[in-house]
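Researcher:
Attend to token order:
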Amino acid sequence: MDGNNRSDIKVGAHVKVVQKQDQHSGRLTEGIVRDILTKSGIHPHGIKVRLQDGVVGRVKEILDDRKANSQAK
């Protein structure tokens, strides 16, 4: 699932984001959503979030919840 719809992203979701400085390379950073920063319902470049470790980026992929739970243990 891509990260263009705000309704698909929940606090605590396991996602991959692209940070501003990594937009040209396409390098993705994986983490757990702490805050959803984009207010609109849809954004063509991905919903902007803050991860639990403080990284801010636009969601490019929402990972399976079961995968997040298995990595958290």
Notes: The chain has one domain: 6-72.
